[in-house]
Amino acid sequence: MKRLNNYDAMAAQLDSELSAANSDSHGTEVLLLNGSDMTPEPVRWLWPNWLAKGKLHILAGAPGQGKTTISLAIASTVTTGSHWPDGSLCTLGNILIWSGEDDPADTLLPRLLAAGADKSHCYFVHGTKIDGQLQSFDPARDMSALEAEAQRIGGIKLLIVDPVVSAVTGDSHKNTEVRRALQPLVDLASRMGAAVLGISHFSKGGAGSDPASRVVGSIAFTAVARVVLVAAKVKGEDGEEKRIFARAKSNIGPDDGGFEYQINQAEPLPGIHASYVSWGQSIAGTARELLSEPESDRATNGDKSAMAVAEEFLIQLLKDGPCPTKYVEDEAKAAGISWATARRASDELGVKKRKVQNIWYWERPNLLRQLAQDAHRSYVEQVEQVQGQHAQMGTNSCDELGRF
Fold first, then answer.
1. Rounded CA gap, 298 and 100, in Å?
2. CATH number of domain containing 102
């Protein structure tokens, strides 16, 4: 028994020495957190449900949709502590822009001024000085230096990376390389408590598909980002084009809804011309629905148009009172009516959309009055038709009598 105890002791000592040797040889230590030692925290929002502090966001769209101008409108709001498009108030802070496409002096700053920004809160990544020599900013090499400078400035609430692919030094179509390249940017956002907004483009084709899946490059861009925003120009039922800014994906909040916007021109300083964004009304629906083109007016069921079918559907569905938007969408899908057509029909019928405790509802105000008016109009038309027939019959009778 004594020999066995000595053997156990020697084995334990050997295991301990091997463990220490492995730890020393690899220099790696895995850190684990126990749930009981942690305190749950809410998401910290810069713009509630749109931009989160310490998180990566992607803004994508086709060329010419004003993605950079939109991002600068967002930045302007931060620099002035003014209101977001939904009316909520923004916390005043500094913004940092790293652009590989636009010049700060003749493009970025004029657009910020046109949007009403306070330029004293605007900072631009100009480059990196190494041994007295100015060199281009290299994310693989200079991220820690950028963080140190940002911490020195303090109060950075928003970091714009345009385009976000600039942060990827490897192949932007390989998931592993994109994830590895974006991680320092994500870590920087977390430590600074700033929202990072990366600008990207839509890949060619794919119209009608999920907008988040159309972001160019590896799917890792949208996988790593907590929120994906999209900007596009669509044609309405009346043939007029309008611009839509919408949420295409969110892992931390609502993933639908958006705003209409317009791109205007201004002269913030004499001789300085720049574009800026003016926000329009808020709109409900998913990005896929909001960005879809209007379908043909003709439906597959007889001579009725798709709009007429959708209007009849909504009249019946909403006649008993308000319905949650999600319920309307599900019922429309079951009835073979596209959501885009249902939304256009709702506008024609004057359907109101209102939010109650974070749930959107559709309702038709004064519906009973409208139904009564429709019934009265139908009755009057029938009476007029009968009277017309009687009058015609009387005329024909007189003609017959005149022959005798």
1. 47
2. 3.40.50.300
